[in-house]
C-alpha cells in the first residue's frame, strides 16, 4: 500500500528538520558500537566487580580445570535488566519475578543476565490532587537518569526494559536511547481483569462531587474498579504507552494487553529474552537507536491519533524523539490528526475497556488497518526479523509452543473498526492556537456539540480554588474555567484529573463549560472540552497571565483556535498577573518538592517536551 501523502510529507519535514542532530546521534551510536566488548575494555578489577554477585554457574566455566568468567572465555552475550518494579503500582507488581524468568531463559540460550538497576515509578492514581503529583512529570526525567545510571556499568550486549505506566515508559525510553548502541526490548505486564466499569466508576465520582454519595460508597466503587495486579483498564497514558511501543516495534508482537500471571504471559517474557538475544552484534544487529528513527516516531504518532490516546504523549514523545536526535512538534501531530482515522472507541472515548479492546482485535488489528491503508511506514526496523507486519498478529500458545495468528477482521465494530469505516475520519487530538497561546485538546471523547465553547472566563490560581467555587454553586452557568500557574516551571505541571468530576457535573446540567490551563489533564480525561498544555505558561509571561474574570473566551476545536475576545490594543497593554508568592512558596516545599527546584527552573515548554535535561 502506498504511503498516505500527508504521512510522507510530515515524515520528510521531520527528517529535514532533524538532519544535523540525527546525524550526530548516529555518529555517537556507531562509535559506541565499534568498541571492544566491556569485559575487554575494562580492567580486571572492573570485570570482577561486575560479575562477583552472579550465581557460580552463570559466572564461570571450567576451562582446562581452571574456573574463568563465561562472558570472557565463551563470549557469552550479557543482558542488562532495568526494572521499574514496585508493588505500589498494580501494573508493575507482576514484574517482581520477571528477572528470574529472564535469567533462566538467558541461561538456556547460552547467555547471562543481571538486573543492572531499578528506576523509581510513582502511581499518578495515588497522587492525583495531592502535592506528590507535582513530582510526577519530572519523575520521567529522573527515570531516564536512573536508566542511564543502570546502563553506565557498560558491560552489556543488550538490555530489557521492564515498565508499563505513565512516566515510566517514556523515561525508560529516553534513557535507553542515550545508550542507542544496545539492542533493547521493552517488556510489559498486561492489564488487570475488568472490574467495575469505567462508566459506572465515573458516575459515582460525579455523584460524590455533588455530595449525593459519601466517602464509603465512593471508596467501594473505586476499590471495585482498581482491584488486582495489572494495568488500570481505561485507555489512559499507561495503556497508550503500550500501543505506541507496539507501533514502534519495540515489544515482542502482541504483548501489550495479555493479562498477567498466566502461561502465555510468562512465555512472552521468555520470548523477550530470546528476541533481544537474536539482535545482538553476532546476529541480526538492530540497536534501539537505529530502530527508533523518524519513520518509527511517525508510526507512534499515528497510532496515538488512531486510538484517541493520551494527551500526555504530546509532551512525552517530543522528549523521546529528541533523545534519538529527532525533532517533532505539535504542528506535526496536528497535520497527521487531520488525516489519520479514529479506529477505536475505548474508555474514555467509548465504554469498552482495554480487555474488551484486546478481545476485539487489539493492537494487532489497529496496526494491520493502519498499514493496509497506508498510514504507517512498513519499511522500518523492529526488534523482530519479520518487521512491523509481524505486529499485526496475535500471540497464543499451541501446547507449550508460542505461535502468532492473523488478527483478521474486527470482532466487535463498536470497539475497533476498519480504516474504510472509522469512527471518525480524523484523529482524536487537535492543536489550538490564538492570542491565548498554543494548546492541545482531546476531542475524541467530547460530544460533537461541545467542540465549540464560548463563555465568560472564571480565573483560578489553583485546582483547589475551582473546587471551592464549585461547591459554593458559583459555577452553575456557562463558564470557561482558566486554571493557571500549572506549567512545568510553575509547579512541575501536575495532572488536574480531579477537575473532571465537577466540570462533568456542570456539563451534565446543560451548562456550556470548558477548561483552559497550562497544566495537564489525565490520559483518561476527555468528556469535557479542555484546552491544556497552554504554552507559553503563565509563570513565564504567557497570555493566561493577562486573562481576567469575565473575559469572553472562545475555544473552537473545529477551526483550531483559542482566543480571548478583548480588543487587541487593550490586550497588549494589560499588565501580566504574577504568580502569588504564597502559592509559589507552597508549591516549592514539602513532599520532596525542594529537590526538584532545578528541574522546574530549567524545564522547557510543554511543546518542547517539558524536558529538564536539554
Write down how many β-strands occur, each being a DSSP E stretch of 2 or more residues. Answer: 16
How far the N terminus sits from the C terminus, by CA atoms, comes to 38 Å
Shape: globular
Overall number of structural domains:
2
The biggest beta sheet reads: 8 strands, mixed
Question: What value does the average pLDDT take?
Answer: 93
**What Rg is obtained from the alpha carbons, in whole angstroms?**
24 Å
Proportion in β-strands: 5-15%
Amount of helix: 25-40%
Adjacency order of strands in the biggest sheet:
9-10-14-13-12-11-15-16
**Spans where pLDDT lies below 50 across 5 or more residues:** 62-67
Treating each run of at least 4 consecutive H or I residues as one helix, how many helices? Answer: 25
Structural class: alpha/beta
Give structural notes.
This protein is α/β, with parallel strands linked by helices. The protein is built from 25 helices and 16 strands. Helix 6 packs across helix 13, helix 9 packs parallel to helix 16 and helix 12 crosses helix 15. The longest helix is centred in the N-terminal third of the chain and has 29 residues. The two termini are 38 Å apart.
Ordered list of secondary-structure elements with their pairings:
Elements: H1 5-33, H2 38-41, H3 44-51, H4 56-59, E1 60-63, E2 66-69, H5 70-73, E3 78-83, H6 98-108, E4 112-118, H7 124-127, H8 136-151, E5 158-162, H9 168-177, E6 184-187, H10 198-209, H11 215-225, H12 237-247, H13 263-278, H14 288-291, H15 294-306, H16 313-323, H17 330-337, H18 354-360, H19 362-372, E7 393-398, E8 401-406, E9 429-434, E10 437-442, E11 452-460, H20 463-471, E12 479-483, H21 488-491, H22 500-508, E13 513-517, E14 530-535, E15 552-556, E16 561-564, H23 568-573, H24 581-588, H25 597-602
Helix pairs in contact: 6-13, 8-9, 9-16, 10-11, 10-22, 12-15
Amino acid at each position: 500500500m502506498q504511503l498516505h501523502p500527508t504521512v510522507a510529507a510530515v515524515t520528510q519535514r521531520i527528517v529535514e528538520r532533524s538532519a544535523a542532530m540525527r546525524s550526530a546521534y548516529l555518529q555517537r551510536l556507531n562509535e559506541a558500537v565499534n568498541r571492544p566488548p566491556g569485559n575487554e575494555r575494562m580492567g580486571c578489577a572492573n570485570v570482577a566487580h561486575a560479575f562477583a554477585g552472579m550465581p557460580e554457574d552463570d559466572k564461570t566455566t571450567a576451562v582446562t580445570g581452571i574456573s574463568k568468567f563465561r562472558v570472557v572465555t565463551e563470549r557469552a552475550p550479557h543482558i542488562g535488566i532495568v526494572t521499574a518494579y514496585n508493588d505500589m503500582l498494580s501494573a508493575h507488581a507482576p514484574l517482581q519475578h520477571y528477572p528470574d524468568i529472564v535469567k533462566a531463559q538467558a541461561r538456556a540460550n547460552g547467555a547471562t543476565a543481571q538486573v543492572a538497576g531499578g528506576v523509581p515509578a510513582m502511581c499518578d492514581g495515588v497522587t492525583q490532587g495531592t502535592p506528590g503529583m507535582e513530582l510526577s512529570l519530572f519523575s520521567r526525567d529522573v527515570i531516564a537518569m536512573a536508566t542511564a545510571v543502570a546502563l553506565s556499568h557498560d558491560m552489556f550486549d543488550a538490555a530489557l526494559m521492564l515498565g508499563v505506566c505513565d512516566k515510566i515508559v517514556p523515561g525508560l525510553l529516553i534513557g535507553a536511547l542515550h545508550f542507542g548502541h544496545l539492542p533493547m526490548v521493552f517488556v510489559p505486564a498486561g492489564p488487570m481483569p475488568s472490574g467495575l466499569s469505567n462508566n459506572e466508576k465515573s458516575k459515582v465520582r460525579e455523584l460524590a462531587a455533588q455530595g449525593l454519595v459519601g466517602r464509603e460508597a465512593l471508596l467501594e466503587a473505586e476499590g471495585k474498579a482498581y482491584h488486582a495486579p495489572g494495568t488500570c483498564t481505561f485507555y489512559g497514558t499507561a495503556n497508550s504507552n503500550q500501543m505506541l511501543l507496539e507501533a514502534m516495534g519495540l515489544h515482542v508482537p502482541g504483548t501489550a494487553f495479555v493479562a498477567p500471571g498466566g502461561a502465555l504471559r510468562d512465555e512472552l517474557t521468555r520470548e523477550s529474552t530470546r528476541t533481544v538475544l537474536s539482535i545482538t552484534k553476532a546476529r541480526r544487529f538492530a540497536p534501539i537507536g537505529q530502530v527508533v528513527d523518524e519513520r518509527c516516531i511517525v508510526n507512534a504518532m499515528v497510532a496515538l491519533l488512531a486510538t484517541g490516546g493520551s494527551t500526555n504523549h504530546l509532551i512525552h514523545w517530543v522528549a523521546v524523539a529528541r533523545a534519538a536526535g529527532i525533532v517533532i512538534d505539535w504542528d506535526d501531530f496536528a497535520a497527521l490528526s487531520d488525516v489519520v482515522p479514529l479506529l477505536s472507541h475505548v474508555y474514555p472515548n467509548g465504554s469498552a475497556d482495554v480487555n474488551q479492546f484486546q478481545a476485539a482485535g487489539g493492537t494487532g488489528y489497529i496496526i494491520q488497518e493502519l498499514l493496509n491503508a497506508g498510514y504507517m511506514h512498513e519499511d522500518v526496523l523492529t526488534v523482530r526479523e519479520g518487521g512491523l507486519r509481524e505486529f499485526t498478529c496475535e500471540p497464543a500458545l499451541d501446547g507449550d509452543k508460542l505461535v502468532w495468528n492473523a488478527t483478521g477482521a474486527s470482532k466487535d465494530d463498536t470497539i475497533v473498526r476498519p480504516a474504510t469505516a472509522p469512527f471518525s475520519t480524523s484523529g482524536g487530538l487537535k492543536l489550538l492556537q490564538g492570542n491565548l497561546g498554543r494548546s492541545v485538546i482531546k476531542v475524541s471523547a467530547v460530544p460533537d456539540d461541545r467542540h465549540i465553547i464560548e463563555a465568560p472566563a472564571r480565573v483560578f490560581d489553583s485546582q483547589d480554588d475551582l473546587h471551592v467555587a464549585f461547591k459554593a454553586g458559583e459555577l452553575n452557568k456557562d463558564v470557561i474555567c482558566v486554571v493557571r500557574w500549572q506549567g512545568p516551571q510553575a509547579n512541575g505541571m501536575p495532572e488536574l484529573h480531579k477537575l473532571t468530576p465537577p466540570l462533568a457535573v456542570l456539563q451534565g446540567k446543560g451548562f456550556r463549560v470548558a477548561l483552559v490551563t497550562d497544566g495537564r489533564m489525565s490520559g483518561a480525561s476527555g468528556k469535557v472540552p479542555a484546552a491544556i498544555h497552554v504554552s507559553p505558561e503563565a509563570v513565564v509571561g504567557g497570555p493566561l497571565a493577562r486573562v481576567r474574570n469575565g473575559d469572553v473566551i472562545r475555544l473552537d476545536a473545529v477551526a483550531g483556535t483559542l482566543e480571548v475576545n478583548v480588543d487587541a490594543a487593550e490586550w497588549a497593554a494589560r499588565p501580566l498577573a504574577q504568580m502569588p508568592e504564597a502559592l509559589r512558596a507552597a508549591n516549592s516545599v514539602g513532599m520532596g518538592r525542594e529537590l526538584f527546584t532545578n528541574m522546574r527552573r530549567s524545564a522547557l515548554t510543554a511543546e518542547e517536551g517539558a524536558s529538564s535535561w536539554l
